[in-house]
Amino acid sequence: GMNLQADFYVVASGAWSSCILNEVEMPKIKPIRGQLIQYPSIKEKLPYILYKNDFYLIQRQDGVVLAGSTKEDVGFDKRITEEARKSLQMKAESIMPILKNYNIENQWSGLRPGSQDNVPMIERHHKYNNVYLNVGHYRYGLTMAPKAARIISDLITLNG
C-alpha cells in the first residue's frame, strides 16, 4: 500500500467511503444503485421538474428528457437492467404520454452513498482528531457539495 502523510484528512469518497480507509473506524456507508433513462430532445416543453413518489422527469435546455430514478440495494453492482428500464419508461409515459412516440436513447446507473437514515455526516471523526468525514449524502451529494465543503473547511480551520 501507499502511505500518505498530512496534517488533516477528509474522507469524501461517495459510496466507497466505508472501504477507503482500512484502519479508521468508519460509519457504514453503502452503495445504492440509481438507474435513469434518457429520451431524445422533444419539442414539447416541460414547464418545470415533475416529481412524484421518488420519481422525476427533467427536461434539459436542449430538450432531452431524463427520467429517474431507481433505488436499489445491490452492493457495488452498476449494471443496468431491463426491469428498471421498463419501470422507468412506464412511469415516464404515464406522466407525459407524448413520450410514447419516442425511443429511449440511453440508460445508465450510478452508485449513491447511502447512510443510516440517509442523513449525511459532516463532522470530525469521533476517534481520530485529524480525520474529517463528509459522507453519506445519498441522492443530494451534488446539491450539498458547496455547503458541505464550507463546513468541513470551517471545522478544520477551527479545530486545527
Give the % helix.
10-25%
What structural category do the secondary elements indicate?
alpha+beta
> How would a textbook summarize the main sheet?
5 strands, antiparallel
CATH level 1 class label of the largest domain: Alpha Beta
| CATH topology-level name of the largest domain | D-Amino Acid Oxidase, Chain A, domain 2
Radius of gyration: 19 Å
What do we call the CATH homologous superfamily of the largest domain? Answer: D-Amino Acid Oxidase, subunit A, domain 2
Q: Tell me how many strands there are.
A: 8
- Order of SSEs: EHEEEEHEEEH
Low-confidence stretches: none
- CATH-derived architecture of the largest domain: 2-Layer Sandwich
Structure description:
The chain has 160 residues and is α+β, with helices and mostly antiparallel strands. The protein folds into 2 domains: 9-29 and 116-159, no CATH class; 30-114, D-Amino Acid Oxidase, Chain A, domain 2 (2-Layer Sandwich), CATH 3.30.9. Helices cover 23% and strands 29% of the residues. The protein has 3 helices and 8 strands, in the order βαββββαβββα. The protein has helices at residues 17-20, 82-95, 141-159, and strands spanning 9-11, 30-41, 50-52, 55-59, 64-68, 106-114, 121-124, 131-135. The strands form 2 sheets. The chain has a 5-stranded antiparallel sheet, covered by helices on one side. The protein has a 3-stranded mixed sheet with strand order 1-8-7, with helices on one face. Strand 3 (50-52) and strand 4 (55-59) form a beta hairpin. The longest helix has 19 residues, at 141-159.
